[in-house]
Amino acid sequence: MKKTLLLATLASLLASQVFAADPVKARKEVFKQYKQTFGQMGKMTKGSTPFNKDDFAKLAAHLDALAQQPWQYFPVSTATGKTASETDAKPEIWSKADWKKAIDTHKAETAKLKQTAASGDLGAIKVQFAAVQKTCKACHDSFRKD
Ligand code: HEC
Question: What CATH architecture is 23-143?
Answer without folding.
Answer: Up-down Bundle (1.20)
